[in-house]
Structures are given as C-alpha cells and as structure tokens.
Amino acid sequence: MNDVTTITVTGEPGYDITVGTGILHLVGEALPATARKVLVVHPPTLGARAAELREILMADGGREVLLAEIPDAEQGKRVEVAAFCWQIMGQADFTRTDVVVGFGGGAVTDLAGFVAATWLRGVALVQVPTTVLGMVDAAVGGKTGINTAEGKNLVGAFWAPRAVVCDLNLLESLPRNEAVAGFAEVVKAGFIWHPQILDAIEADPAAATDVTSPVFRECVELAIGMKARVVSEDFHEAGLREVLNYGHTLGHAIEHAERYRWRHGAAISVGMVFAAELSRLAGRLPDAAAARHRDILNLLGLPTTYRAGAWPTLLASMQRDKKSRAGLLRFIVLDDIARPTVLQAPDDSLLFAAYQEVAGG
Ligand SMILES: NC(=O)c1ccc[n+]([C@@H]2O[C@H](COP(=O)([O-])OP(=O)(O)OC[C@H]3O[C@@H](n4cnc5c(N)ncnc54)[C@H](O)[C@@H]3O)[C@@H](O)[C@H]2O)c1
Prior knowledge:
Blueprint: E1 5-9, E2 15-20, H1 25-30, E3 37-42, H2 47-58, E4 64-69, H3 79-91, E5 99-104, H4 106-118, E6 124-129, H5 132-138, E7 143-148, E8 151-158, E9 163-167, H6 176-192, H7 195-203, H8 205-208, H9 214-233, H10 248-257, H11 264-281, H12 287-299, E10 306-307, H13 311-324, E11 330-336, E12 339-344, H14 348-358, E13 359-360
Parallel strand pairs: 2-9, 3-4, 3-5, 5-6, 6-9, 10-13
Antiparallel strand pairs: 1-2, 7-8, 11-12
Helix pairs in contact: 3-4, 4-5, 5-6, 5-9, 6-7, 6-9, 6-11, 10-11, 10-13, 11-12, 11-14
The structure holds nicotinamide-adenine-dinucleotide (NAD).
C-alpha cells in the first residue's frame, strides 16, 4: 500500500481528501455503496486515463461507468456542456443514489460539480483533480460553477464532494507551465497561512515545483490542509474564507483584461505582489516581507509586473466586481506573513501607489 495522507474537511457535510501516488483505486472505495451508475467527466487530454479509471471502477462488478468527454478548459464550463452531461444521465436512468466523478483540472471539477449539484436536485460527487490548481484549490471546498456570455463563474452552487482523491502521479503529464501556474496558489497558502512553504521554496525552488519531489508533496499537502481548515469553518464564504482571495482582487481584473489568456496563477502572482505592496504602503507589512513576495515568485518564474498603462482599466474592473457584490472595494492584506486581514475601501491614491510598484513597461 502506498503512503497516503488523509486531510479531513469537517462540518456538514464533512469529507476526506486523500493524497498519494498511484492511488486511483481509492476512487472506487470513495463511491457510495448504493451507486449503480457512475458518470466520469473528463477532458480530451485525459481520455486514456479516464478509460483506466473506468476499468478500476468496474472491477467490483455491478456498476455501470459512463464516460463524458467534454471540451477542454473553459470551453467545458458552458451550460451546453452541462446539458450534454444531463442528457447522458437521463438516457442512462441516472438516479438519486448514483454518483458523478470529476476527473480533470479545475474547469472539469467545476462543471462536474455543477452537474452533480443540479441533477435530480443533487447527487453524490467525487472529485479527482488532475492539475495542481485543482488539487489545492478548485476541487476542495465545494464551489461549483459554469460561465455565461456575461462572465466567469456567474452560475453555480455550493455542493460539497463526498471525497476528493489527489493522485500525484496524474500530474506527471501536466505541462510545466500549468504546474508552476497552479503552484501560485500554494505560494499564496505560504503567505497567508503556512510560512514553511515559503522556506521550502527558498531552500530549493526547483524541487518545490517538481511534481515528483517529496518537497512538492509536502507543500501541496500544507496548501490543501489550509483550504480544508478554512472551508471547514466557513463553507458559504460568510467570513474566514475571504482570506483565500489574497492576490485575487487585482488578479481577477488582470485575467479579465487579458480575456483569460493568462493562467489564473500568473494573474494572482502579480496580484499578490500588489496586495503585499498595498499592505506595506498602508503601514502594515514590513518592507522585507513585501520584498519576499517578489523574490519568491521570481524564483519560480511567475510574473510580478503588469502593464503600466493598464491601471484605469484594472481599477474599473475591480469597481464593477465590487458593485456586482453590492459592497465596498475590499482587499485581503497582511499585517505580517501568515496574518491576513481585510482592508476596506482604501483611497484610490493608495491603490495607485501600490500599482506603481508592480507596473512594468
Ligand atoms: N471551484 C473553485 O473553488 C475554484 C477555485 C479555483 C479555480 N477554479 C476554476 O478552475 C479552473 C482552472 O483550473 P485549472 O488551472 O486546473 O485549468 P484547466 O482545468 O483548464 O486545466 C488546464 C489544462 O490542463 C489540462 N490537463 C488537466 N490535467 C492534466 C494532466 N494531468 N495532464 C495533462 N494535461 C492536463 C487540461 O486539459 C487543460 O488544458 C477555472 O475555471 C477556475 O474558475 C475553481
């Protein structure tokens, strides 16, 4: 038996996240005993692995396993794709006691979660993330969703999985730039919660982002542990969960300005440097801790600057986002490493000064 780490999300409903290498067989054990039908939702890139998973899930006998191959990345997060899955389920007489498995990156786990949340008003869901971002973020915490023509993630539901299985072997086929971009969320966990992640990156940045290394696994487990702890306390994002938005306010504006051609992790990398500079200029974060952001992200080859002239567009985008939430412009800032707090309605001049610190050519 391989070495498996179990991280538990408590609350109602609680569930386990298992992390290890070569642990796909655990997906079978995570399915509800009542499930006679399983819908495995996967992207085209994982067709062969999905077929392998299907064999594993059918080995017990008595289960019908349906594969739903959906378009790649954001193209998969559309209502037409959800309807395609609902059609397969309808034609297979998929019942309340059956189960959906999300097998892919965050786009797939978001779509699969949404399909599970909506079919017959909710059926069981098991998430099997296959990207770094999926493992440390998207598949943990029960947020599901799809995009509409008007914007990203506008439609969705909170729908907790009954289990999350993170088989690190699956990451070996992930392109390096995807792995590093996803690792930005691990770095975020370092800044807001677990400084030992930052120490590990500084000690050996290459090992930290090598998906086969023990250091990578340690950092990923710490990041999952943080997310599990936060969502255990605040499933519906009423309070504590907001700290997870560190770097995301500006990051989302950059993703929007780039029409989602930038990887999410690259955008939040710039966003974290901005948030650190905002914290420093607001008199909260020591200079050295702000500088550490840039140093660590540079070590990993993640971007730390964005176009100088883009500020008016980015500010307008953040304001729109704020309006859509009927609230004030809020930023997660740091009083120190691992001490996140909220900065509400900062002056435009302070925001601009912080942006000057990330503005490149
Ligand atoms: N629900 C949440 O809480 C939450 C949190 C963060 C992000 N998200 C969502 O996650 C999505 C981004 O997730 P992502 O970064 O994983 O992107 P993604 O799902 O688009 O995957 C990135 C690419 O990697 C490929 N891929 C996936 N696994 C692979 C593997 N093992 N080997 C080779 N290629 C593989 C995919 O086919 C895709 O082309 C966004 O839609 C975002 O909104 C959701």
